[in-house]
Description:
The complex is a heterodimer of chains A (299) and B (394). By secondary structure, chain A is mostly beta strands.
Amino acid sequence: MVAKCCGFDFSGNESFKTTECTMPLSTQSQADDEKYVLVASLDNARNLSNILKAITFKDHAIFNATPNGLKVTVEDSKCLQANAFIQAEIFQEYTIKEDVVGFQVNLTVLLDCLSIFGGSTLPGVSTALRMCYRGYGYPLTLFLEEGGVVTVCKINTQEPEEPIDFEFCSSNVINKVILQSESLKEPFSELDMSSEVLQITMSPSQPYFRLSTFGNSGNAHYDFPKDSDMMELFRCTKTQTNRYKMSLMKPSTKALALSCKVSVRTDSRGFLSLQYLVRNDDGQICFVEYYCCPDEEVE
Amino acid sequence: MDCVVTGGNVKVLAKAILSLSRIGDELYVEPQDDGLALRSVNSSRSAYGCFLFAPLFFTRYTIPNGQDFRCKMAIKSVQAVFRSLASLEKTVEKCHIELDKKKNRLTFTLHCKHGLLKTHNLSFQDSESLQAVFDKESYANVFRAQPRLLADTVVHFPSSLDEVTMSVNDDRMWFRNHVEDEAELSKAMQTELCLASDEFDHFAVRAHNSVTFCLKELRGLLVFAESANLPISIYFDEPGSPVVLSVTDSVLEGNFVLATLSDDSHQRKDNTRRAQTPPPPPPDDFMNDDIDSYLIAMDTSMAPGPSSAGPPTPPLAKSTYSKQPVAAYHRTRIHSEEEEEEKEETDDSDRPPNKKFCSLFFGSVLPPSSQMSTQPVTNQEVLASDSEDDTQAE
């Protein structure tokens, strides 16, 4: 694997005239655009950076762009996979010249670039983004503009890896609940991190939906009744108790914090799927998905 | 034990545990006939806190008949039960505390909004009774103030500050910090605040004294008092005897007992007493430490024990003695000589506390016999001489 590095280019080349940069992102010549296989623009870069933060637990992120939109995948230990889906409609401009464009970049570096102007959350202050990729072997180029100042970042890309297929298909789903995220935020923020595992019990009878931890000072259970007003859907067919490594579950808290609804599903093998519905600053909807393998079989 | 707390009282309970966590690492739980006692003591046994929640505080309070039960557990794990303190009032409707003696589990069940049920099964250890010996009635100086007044006072002291000195005369109370002689002048800051007696709900002074004690625990109790909006009563006497901070209402009582720094006059008195005691056994690893400050502090912390404490103390005093280096005896004498030389200057009562004691000043918290409570002394006595270093050395 080639060493990753981040290239910041403040020189204003790329036939980029900083003197004329009142509308810099639209001043690029048509000729420039033609070189790229992928061009995606956003008025507010936070709409991208926020959702990427929800899956940031490893540096390597696999980008997979199709005409439908952008899918970003991050994996850990071959046991955990997180996907963020940003539909083409979210972008103000989304041009793709091939059926599939794939590359891999360092996600931490990309996020640093996206917030290069400080990532202000003040209303009315936003960073505009134009993200361009020329193809295999080329860097990912970001044009960022805020208040008439433009930064061009080039992030070296890597050979894209093939994301793991968790073979999680809805026909094998045994249990499924949809909850309003609000109700899970507190339990997740309180989880006893001295516990090695998070145990999830889903059952058509009591305790219906239970999160358990087994820590140094004792154990804790969080029970959600199926008729709770936070429970949007309760479809459990069989009692299942599975354990998932706490260290793998922890990153999903970031996605939970951003989301408004979460769907928790387990399949016949005990694999866990967490799907988060995330509403961005402009009220548009994106999805984040986590897959996690169960820990050793519980007796 | 089986008890239920509802509504706003859940937060009161949680805040009490939070303020006890500022004292020690362990929470002592003792269900008594007159209510549930929660206590904590710090490792050097120089600070002790106790909350007693009367049966009326609970919606249900039942304890098993005729069998004493008490336990201790890590206070952190109990805090974890009430982790979302800020939203507690809004989310928790009912808290059920139940003891399962067979499984050695204390179970906290929180019934929350939206039907969420949180169950925490905490393991515990059996423990002896923890009971500080103090008698509020015998104190010379008694004050009562709204928590706001004290909170507004301590807020002016930097959070890094350990101790504060409280002085009184007939119509004023001062709080000040002590700046060490060796402190860097550019960083040193002396803060002094004066409160007039009419700011207090109650202000009764019989002895114009000043005492130095730790701020941390006072801040801890303030967290509770402010949230429960209960006035804090302060009882204190003379330097070296503990200051008692207390909050009371119809269903609960909280008492924090904090050691104060002994002043020099005490120390001289103690030195003369020390001279009569037999030389202690050989030294241990304390010799490596800042021996001067250690020995001096040891000296102050030791003396009241055997001479004033009555029957239950000897075993404890003995154990403490065994830790005293042989050099202590000699050092004490040397120190007394120095003391003589300094005598003229030290008579000034406004003198700032001798910083040398600070590392261990918690020692002499056993009240002199005159203040001994009428309560029977239980098997584990708190606030007897025991130093932080002792604990660490174990």
